[in-house]
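[job 0417] fold request received: Bacterioferritin
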Amino acid sequence: MAEFLTDIETLRSRARKEIEKGPVTDAYGADLQRVIQVLNEALATEIVCTLRYKRHYFTATGLYSEPVAAEFLEHAQEEQAHADKLAQRIVQLGGEPDFDPDTLTKRSHAEYDASLGLIDMIKEDLVAERVAIASYTEIAQWLGNGDPTTRRVFEELLAQEEEHADDLRGLLERIPQEKSGL
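[job 0417] inference complete; emitting structure tokens
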């Protein structure tokens, strides 16, 4: 049977040799710079989603707006937590989180939306969630075993984005579609 574990002395020597790399060791199997770039694109996506949900929260009006606005606010807070988690991972990997407002929408996978009708807001938020779901699924698959920690971060975000999409679909099913401006 072939030995597959590195001996303890070699592990210790390697750990001391490049101590400034923090958690990134020789065992890291992904393209570090590309992972940081992908994380920054996801960070931009989460920031844009936070801003979109906040706008929808503040501008939602109509008969059904109160429970829908509450959902928008909850999603905005969760998207902000996603952004924070991504920024933290970028720093752990030795990168710099990119919060540059001049390029956020260019780097974001999802679009910003300024719809005024409640149904349009919900639909645009659902589209953005579906974009995030597709994107984060691809990213988790791409990372594979090369960076299992970052893959798990995306899997956690993915689960919550799926929950958001389900919430929004439920809202669309409960609100009469024929009324404009709701």
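[job 0417] notes: The helical segments are 8-17, 32-59, 65-92, 104-107, 118-143, 148-174. The chain has a mean pLDDT of 91.
[job 0417] exit 0
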